[in-house]
Amino acid sequence: MSKLPGWLGRFGSELTELGARLEERRAAAAADDDPLGGPGPGPAVAPESPDPGQVPAPPSYAPSVAAKPDPVAAIPWGMRVAAEAGWRLLVLAGTLWVLMQVITAVQLVVLAFAAALLITAMLQPTVVRLKRTGLPHGLATAVTAVLGFVVIGLVGWFVVWQVMENLDTLSDRVRDGIDELKRWLLDSPFHVTESQINDIAKNLSDTISTNTEEITSAGLQGVTVMVEFLTGLLLAMFSTLFLLYDGRRIWEWSLKLVPAAARPGVAGAGPRAWRTLTAYVRGTVLVALIDAIFIGLGLYFLNVPLAVPLAVFIFLFAFIPLLGAVVSGALAVVVALVTEGVFTALMVLVVVLAVQQIEGHILQPFILGRAVRVHPLAVVLSVATGGLVAGIGGAVVAVPLVAVTNTVVGYLRSYATAGPVGGQHGATALGIAPAAGPAEPPAPPPAAAAPRTGPGEPDGEAVPPEPSDGEPPRT
């Protein structure tokens, strides 16, 4: 029994040594696995907190796993470009759709203002010339507006008067022309029989009698259209008057709605757009006047009734490119056919085609020139789109809108790549001169001019220069 405590003591010491050796081996293994090659076993040190923005490296015994590619890099380049362009086109299409809905809702106002712009582009040079003779700005504007509206009113009155004066004679000649056309068809090589002609007349009569309600509703709708036309006419007259008198301030106020970064480019594009619109209106009026005079003279010498009203219609329809010439020429041929017979109608057709060929190949290239050159395909598509959206008014304003847009886009593209075209830009964009030579320094922007105040002028408001001939209205 006396040997038992000694044996227990030796066993305990051996367990202590065994535990110490195990601790040493664990410390050595930890030192071998340390990636930073830190010191071996030593006093226990609290581990530092890892950097939250840094991912620790995997241990050496972890299996290697291939990293997955970025999902964006996995998409082909062409598909990424198409997607980027696609959503932008969707946003643009949505914006255009909303804009078209707004324009459709206020179609009368938009068309009246567009007509006012066209009339202002035609009358504004007259205001400038009257001011050069010494008339005050207000008096020159009033004289020009009154003379312009009086001339337009007299032309309209003359057309209505001619139609009313010749209405009875025209109806008799129409009946005679229909009888003559019937005889011509019976004697023609088309083998038309009298029963077929009577069947056609009976079908027309039945169609009219069965659609009396639709015709009546169409007549009532025509009254509504006439009221809208008169409203739009008054609105266009007031808009023209204010554009002629106060166009400069309207343009300056419009520029304030443009972001400051884009304002110099828009200010430089404005006068060029106005010059394009003015050149289009002047050229179209001159070409339409020549068409109306020569076709009207042909109708007069061929003894076609209503020659003067038909000439006025030809003048008005000339503002609708392509389609207007066809409609007005067809109307003149039909009137000649039902009143004077087939031979006279063929002669009228020859006159109309000859004048239109001279217009298309000589007058328009010579008068309009390169100022408003638009591709024929763009003309056809714009007229068709304008007619579908807003009827005749949309077809009239479609081509000048495309011409002005072409000018503005071309200037803004040049401005973005090479700075102000011709060295001219500014907040008012007035006084735009032809492009200066390389030796001439660019003119400073008008917005940078020091404000000038005086009696009756607001403090700090810059006084813009007076426009010259060919510039935009007082904008």
Structure overview:
This protein has helices at 4-33, 71-74, 77-105, 107-132, 137-165, 167-187, 194-210, 212-256, 263-301, 307-317, 323-340, 342-367, 376-418. With 475 residues, the chain is an all-alpha fold. Helix 4 packs across helix 8 (212-256), helix 4 crosses helix 13 (376-418) and helix 5 runs antiparallel to helix 8. The model is unreliable at 35-46 and 423-475 (pLDDT under 50).
The first-to-last residue Cα distance is: 126 Å
Helix % is over 70%
Let me know the largest β-sheet.
Answer: none
Low-pLDDT stretches are: 35-46, 423-475
Which class best fits the helix and strand makeup?
mainly alpha
Q: Strand percentage, roughly?
A: under 5%
Number of helices: 13
Radius of gyration, in Å, reads 42 Å
Question: Based on the structure, what is the oligomeric state of the protein chains?
Answer: single chain
Q: What is the succession of H and E elements?
A: HHHHHHHHHHHHH
In round numbers, the mean pLDDT is 74
Secondary structure: number of strands: 0
Shape: elongated
Helix-strand blueprint:
Blueprint: H1 4-33, H2 71-74, H3 77-105, H4 107-132, H5 137-165, H6 167-187, H7 194-210, H8 212-256, H9 263-301, H10 307-317, H11 323-340, H12 342-367, H13 376-418
Helix pairs in contact: 4-5, 4-8, 4-9, 4-13, 5-8, 6-11, 9-10, 9-12, 9-13, 10-11, 11-12
